[in-house]
Every structure is written in C-alpha cells, then in structure tokens.
Amino acid sequence: MTPQQIAVAVVVATLGLLVLLLVLYGRPRRSVQEGLPTNFSRGDPDSVLENQRLHRILVWGVASSIVLAAFLTLYFVAEPFREAAYAKKFLAASVARGEIQFRPDLAAGETGANCASCHGPNGEGGFAATDPNWPAPPLNNEFQRYTIDEITSIIKMGRPGTPMPSWGVDFGGPLNDQKVEDVVNFLQTLQVADKYELPASITDGKEVFMRKCAVCHGQDAHGQALGQPLPTFFAPDLTTEFYRLGLKVERVTVTQNLTNALLAKHSANTSPTQADVDTAMKQLTTAEIMAAGKTAAQNTIMNGRKNTPMPAWQNRLRPEHIQAVLKFLESIQRVPS
Q1: Are 196 and 137 in contact (CB under 8 A)?
Q2: By the number of CB atoms within 10 A of the CB, which of 6, 72, 240, 271 ranks highest?
Q3: How far is residue 26's CA from residue 34's CA, in Å, rounded to a whole number?
Q4: Going by C-beta distance under 8 Å and a sequence separation of 6 or more, which residues neighbour residue 221?
Q5: SS3 readout for 22-69
Q6: Before 229, cis peptide (omega within 30)?
Q7: pLDDT at site 173
C-alpha cells in the first residue's frame, strides 16, 4: 500500500470507531433507582460477627499464617541450593567454552585461541608455536603459583619479552573479558597438586639448567642475544656471573664500610673517595668476590629481575633444583679477563 492509502485507511478506521462509540454511549439511558449505600446499611449484629463466622475467619487466618511461614522457611532453605546449582550450571558452560578456546578441535571446525599449541593439550607445557626452541611453561600448576587475578592479567596482557602475546581486547588481543574468564575457568580443571615445573626425580643441576635456563643463556651458558621477539635483550654470560655480581655487591659493601669508618671518626667528609674504594676492592680475594656473587646469583634466580625477561623461579622450581643449578653454575665459573 502507498502512504496515501494507509492514511485514508487510518482516517476511515478512526471515523468508524468514533461512530461506534456514539452509537453505544450516545443514546440516553433510563434512570435506575440506586440502592442504599453499603456503609449506610445495617451490618450483622454482634451475635453473628462474634460467633462461628469470626471463629472461621480466625482459624483461616492462623492456618494461612502457618502455611506462609512454612513456605518462606522452605524457600529460604532451598534457595541457596538452587543458586548453587545454577552457579555450577553456568560454570560448566563456561568451562566448556574455555576448553574450545584452549584446545579447539580443528578437525571439527572449532576455532579458538589454541593455547594447547604452545602449552600442551593438558597444560603440561611445551614449546612456543612461533619459536620451537622457546619452552612454554606448564599451566597445570599455575594456580599453585599465582592468584586468579594475576593469571587473568597475564592472559590479557601477555608476557612482554616472550612469545606469549596479549589476548585481551583491551590490549589488542581477540578475546573479550568473558572468553578470558572461560579460559581461566577451564585452566582450573587441569590443575595438579604439584606447583613445580620439574619432577623431584631430577637431581642433576646441569639437566635443570638445560631444561629451564639454556633457552636464554645458551647451552654453554655463555649468553646469547634472544632474537625475536626480544631483539634488544641479551642474556648474560653465566660463566662469569658470580664474579661480576660479586664485584657489584662487594663495591657497595666496601663503600658502606668506609663511610661508616669516616662517620665513626667524625670526619668532615663522610664520603670515601673513589681511590679509597678501589684500594679496598683490591684487597679482596677472588674467593670472597665469588662467594658474594653466588649469594647475589641465588637471589636473582629466586626473585628474577624486573623489566627484563628474567622471571622469578622460587615458585616454579623446587628449592633443591635451584641449589642444584647454583652448584652447576659454580662449577663453570671463571674470572673474566
């Protein structure tokens, strides 16, 4: 229909409705004698109101109160269970969606982030899809080492300095908050009791080094440029790490000792000269420097180094594995020329 035809139809329908209303309500009505208002009518006498009728009303009132109280009691008892059941239902749906994101069945046409391509189908760890030489850490013990909020942030923001990209929409990734939450919920179903990345059966420090350290520092521990995606980072030579760290630590210690000595003498100048510090450093033995460097190296392994690709290993490697690595590194130390 054209707009003109629609307008004519609306006008005709409106006029027809107006005529119908005039026919139905426009005719004069015969006057009807109205009865006496209810509030002017004589009510039932007290003998009726306070007899069986009142008794029935009170009985029904009490019975209704009991029924209502019983219903509310049952409702408040059952409601938490109903909510918990729905929470489990929603969680199960979220886990199912997270599994598709984590390990999509490509043969069935499923698409997702495919975390399993790097971290293994059960989160047991593997190697980065973009760099077969870069170990991807296991995720089946992630909740032993990080909180849910930390894991969510890692997924959203990625790991700068590693092949782990940003997955959150806010950081340029393809996953919105719901999809990230689905992945986190699925990861919780993969968790094992052991939070450490290597089994306790490994006791050789060199094997621990090859599995966890060599990817950055090289199999000979002489350090290497990390390359993509870290073209500006160079993993240091660990065969001289104890000596280099020991020099730094001992220089701070010597400077502090000289400062304290000047303060004790109430000297006008409480800052030691560079020559005094150098003279005191030359009096240190190589063993003292190495010992200080070993302690500093252990602290670096345990806590990592901020703003570098070096992670903290204290919650990822067993204490005995860290000590085994230190022992291995100690066996290959040399004094740099």
Answers
A1: no
A2: 240
A3: 22
A4: 209, 213, 214, 237, 238, 239, 329, 332
A5: HHHHCCCCCCCCCCCCHHHCCCCCHHHHCCHHHHHHHHHHHHHHHHHH
A6: yes
A7: 94
Entry field: residues in the chain? 337
Distance CA 315, CA 308 (A): 18
Q: Model's pTM, two decimal places? A: 0.57
Residues 113/99, Cβ–Cβ less than 8 Å = no
Q: Are 122 and 154 in contact (CB under 8 A)?
A: no
Give the tens place of pLDDT for each residue, 2-30. 777 888 888 888 888 888 887 777 666 66
- Which residue has tokens 């509310």? 72
**Would you say 143 and 188 are in contact if contact means Cβ atoms under 8 Å apart?**
yes
Please give the single-letter amino acid code of residue 254: V
Task: Please report, for residues 9, 16, 156, 319, the alpha-carbon distance to residue 22 in angstroms, rounded to integers and kept in the order given.
Answer: 20, 10, 69, 96
DSSP states of 242-307 as a string?
HHHHHHHHHHHHHHHHHHHHHHHTT-S--S--HHHHHHHHHTS-HHHHHHHHHHHHHHHHHH--TT
Q: Helix, strand, coil % (nearest 5) of the chain? A: 60, 5, 35
| Beta-bridge partners for 136 | 126
Q: Determine the Cα–Cα distance for residues 327 and 75; give it in Å rounded to an integer.
A: 65
Q: How far is CA 72 from the centre of its chain?
A: 39
CB atoms within 10 A of CB 235: 21
Backbone phi and psi for residue 288, each to the nearest 5 degrees, phi listed first: -65, -40
Considering only CA atoms, which of 300, 325, 113 is closest in space to residue 213? 325
Predicted local distance difference test score (pLDDT) of residue 26: 66
Structure tokens at 254: 């010597």
Among the residue ranges 26-40, 65-79, 131-145, 282-296, the one predicted with the least confidence is: 26-40
